[in-house]
Amino acid sequence: MKVSTAIHLAEICGVDPQWLLFGTRSDVDMHHASSDGVGVAYYEEAEASAGFGRYGHDRPEPRKVFVSRCFLEDLGLLPHHTIMLRVAGDSMESTLKSGDRLILNTAPTMLLGGVTVFVVNGQLMVKRLSPTASGTVMIISDNDRYPPQEAEISRFRWGEADGNDTITVIGRVAYRLQAMS
Predict the structure, then answer these.
(1) Residue 39: CB partners within 8 Å, gap ≥ 6?
(2) Is 21 inside a domain boundary?
(3) Contact 169, 156 (CB under 8 A)
(4) Which residues make Cβ contacts (< 8 Å) with residue 32, sequence separation at least 6?
(5) Which end of the chain is more exposed for a tag (fewer CB within 10 A), N or C?
(6) How far apart are CA 17 and CA 22, in angstroms?
(7) Cα dihedral 49/126/44/67 (nearest 10)
(8) How many secondary structure helices (H) and strands (E) does the chain include?
């Protein structure tokens, strides 16, 4: 078969032309990268406050954003434990800027350290968590204009908010997508 015919047939069938011609797959063929894509929940209406807090929607509806499975694997993420949302505010500058998109690892873990998205008192926030030896967790803004806070480690939970005096961890920030301007 002619190469031009194989390319045309591959486009119609949605397969990689290299696979059709040679039985192998090209990792650099960006036209067919969607076959490697997985849907990740993107909560574009929910913004994690990098400030003093922001009340969000009770149950925002996510839309699917397709991301390369290889990209997620390189970050050590599983598609079903990955979500995306935006940052609003300046308390995490210079680490995070308002408008950045965050890719979160929502897989529960015993580790509370690192930049984390959580819900406290109905507010969706993004802060740096740092456990202490005395059984508390420091909630730290990277911007010095915002004072750190301290909470008992027993208040932290993974998953759904239960409405009590808990701090519900949504996920740890695995990656940020930041505009160049």
Answers:
(1) 64, 65, 66, 79
(2) no
(3) yes
(4) 10, 14, 15, 16, 17, 26
(5) C
(6) 8
(7) 160
(8) 3, 10
Residue 180 confidence (pLDDT) above 80: no
Q: Per this entry, what is the length of the chain?
A: 181
| Locus of tokens 């301007």 | 181
Question: What radius of gyration do the chain's Cα atoms show?
Answer: 21
Give 79-98 as a DSSP string: GGGEEEEEEESSTTTTTS-T
Q: How many domains does the chain have?
A: 1
**92 is written with which tokens?**
């995490």
Domain of residue 42 covers: 38-177
Token pair recorded at residue 105: 């690892």
Structure tokens at 123: 């507010």
Q: pLDDT digits over 15-37, tens only? A: 666 666 666 555 444 444 445 78
> Which two structure tokens, joined as six digits, stand for 85?
């949302």
Neighbours of 164 (CB within 10 A): 8
Tell me the CA distances in angstroms from 41 to 38, 80, 107, one per residue in order: 10, 9, 14
